Amino acid sequence: MQVIIQTDAIDAKILTALGEDGRRSYAEVGAEVGLSTAAVHERVKKMLERGVIRRFSISVDPLTVGLNFTAFVAIRNDGGAHCRDISARLREVSAVQELHSVAGEYDLLAKVRTAHARDLEAVLLQIKAIPGITRTTSTVVLNTEFEDQPLRLGEG
Amino acid sequence: MQVIIQTDAIDAKILTALGEDGRRSYAEVGAEVGLSTAAVHERVKKMLERGVIRRFSISVDPLTVGLNFTAFVAIRNDGGAHCRDISARLREVSAVQELHSVAGEYDLLAKVRTAHARDLEAVLLQIKAIPGITRTTSTVVLNTEFEDQPLRLGEG
DNA sequence: TGTGAAAATGTATCGTT
DNA sequence: AACGATACATTTTCACA
Predict the structure, then answer these.
(1) What keywords would UniProt list here (chains A, B) (predicted)?
(2) Residue A65 CA to chain centroid, in angstroms?
(3) Which chain A residues in 98-137 lie under 8 Å from chain B, judged by CB atoms?
(4) B31 has pLDDT over 70
(5) Which side of chain A, N or C, has fewer Cβ within a 10 Å radius?
(6) Does A139 contact B at CB distance below 8 Å?
(7) Which nucleotide is nearest to B25 (CA to C1')?
């Protein structure tokens, strides 16, 4: 599959600037990338339309809002259920913040976040209740060294 | 360790609203949570000061900017090096977007993103060059079902 | 696609409760 | 902590290049 990059070097700079601070004014960003306010606005609008920018957002520190526990849960689907169905079901489990289908011994890898370690048990029961899922293995996060780093485009 | 939640129910609603759309106006958010524009502004300012909101940002679809490959790399530190030193070194590897210290067979779990699968080799060489790191195991992501979901506070 | 300028909207500040 | 009012800044639109 050929990589389809939907952005040029100026878009990359705009994305990097807004990734660091989503509220930098278009005038300020424009000054950095050598474009007018209106041109930056137009590019941002188009990147939103094309899905390059999914949305404007905020980065929240999970610990400050009571989400103190993280685990990665590897999931096995031996039941022959469609990955799509399982994915849809897992999307409904609010503790599952991220889901990837993976190669290897397991089929899916979920990033789970809860208030407390003891809540993992309930989440695993919810996951195992989904038809097709036969087994899970959890890797408990002791400490998150870093995450949610601002996107840096145009580097190594 | 006791959970220290730095936010009340109104803050949670503000965080949820801004997580969905970081550019919703404070007036609009205020109407939803039953507060004036100025009060929402004040609360957001305080949450930024306390580090609840790390920053305003954008969510970018990695595929549209040429980051087509994701892997989770489990890392073993048998060399007795301090986790802190290794973490600092891994922070310099730009492909490493996320790093957690974990319980189990491995000591660290990194989320790695590159343009192409073949780039993983170079990243692994960079990682293995760090003193203390003796072994890695990579889990290749075939497809990201979902990630970067807007934070939903005050649910199950 | 980009520009500058005007109109529309939103943010930040302040005196007050 | 919150409010309304106001001053200030930014976004958005538009005619034109």
Answers:
(1) DNA-binding, Transcription, Transcription regulation
(2) 18
(3) 98-104, 108-109, 111, 115-116
(4) yes
(5) N
(6) yes
(7) C10
